[in-house]
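Re-run with default settings, no changes from the original entry. Doing this only to confirm the output is reproducible before filing.
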Amino acid sequence: MGRLIAIIAPILILVVLGIGGVIAVSAMKPEPEKNDEPRVGLNVFAEQVQTGSLTITVEAQGEVRPKREIMVAPQISGRVTYVSPDFVDGGFITRGQVLVRVEPADYELAVVRARSVVASAEQGLAREVAEAQLAQKDLDDLGLTDASPLARREPQLAEARAALDAAKAQLAEAELSLNRTAVIAPFDGRVRDRMTDIGQFVSPGQSLGNIFATDVVEVALPLKDADLGQLGLPIAFSASPEQPGPRVEFNATVGGKPRIWVGEIVRTGAAINSQTRQINVFAELKDPFGAGADDGAPMAPGLFVNARIQGETIGNVMIAPRASLRGDDRLFIGDPRSGKLSIRTVDVAYSDRDGAYLRSGVEPGELAVTSPIQAAFDGMSITVLERLPDGTVKVHGEQKKPAAETEAIAKAGTTEGGEGSAQ
């Protein structure tokens, strides 16, 4: 028994000393320092969702054309004796102005001959009237009441009257041909081109040039059915004072400077194009060379313009950056407090390069993520870098960080955001 105690006692002493040493070392171990580092997660840029109103716009392109353009042609034949100095390519013309005059001598002689025929017919009618009166007096003297129309000279009188009417018609025709020796502008406008000159013999219907009216120009803008729906335009639309068409802003570069003109939609096309499945809407600009010009620059025919058609206005919508919209109806939202990604399904009213306009799915002030994220999932850990209005970047989820390190994170996020686009 004594020997057993002598063996166990040293072992117990060593065990007690070992346990006591471990406890002493643990007691003397310093407390670990708290880590002030931010939550670990992918750095992403985000911008706040705003509220506002939305005016839907649809963009299209088209060529400017005059609403009225005609070919100048004579109605009679003859040699050209006069051409207006304004009847040149690019010339301005006014309504009633003589553009071209055909030699009138032959037509003046025809008027003289026609007047002579009229005078002869008037004399013949007067003679027949007198003879008819004498015949009727003779019949009355004889007491005849049932005499034939021939005895009363009624057919002769009708023939004389018809001859006078025909002579007058010939005179009117001769005078009309004489008046047509002057080719007159039917409206205020400009000359597109001229194809005649003094001394040329012209025939009826021969082209002398082309002119167009400057009161109105129009642009045919092809739109898809969805665009018509956004604008609220039916296929059979025609503008009226009670239902005016949408406002249209045209823009193009003229003379090296950007120009803007403002017109309106006046009607839609009659049918849908079977190849493109689009329908034309027609926009007009009034007085393009006068009041409708942009600082003296007209929206001239032949010019290719871009058009922004203004549709209806929707109030109280949420506005998110366009880059934050993924697909058709998904939005990435960053929670700065939890450092988590939230993938939302939103109701998109409209989207363009300026932003995504949402009816529901987010709240104002939430942070919409604009950076691209590979293999994103709901609840993913992120570090939100908010772009502030003054251009600075606020890093959420940190308490204190050296300025140099914050700047490095911002630059990294900028590089990452700049390489991506909305999905």
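The two ends are 86 Å apart (CA to CA). DSSP finds five helices and 23 strands in the chain.
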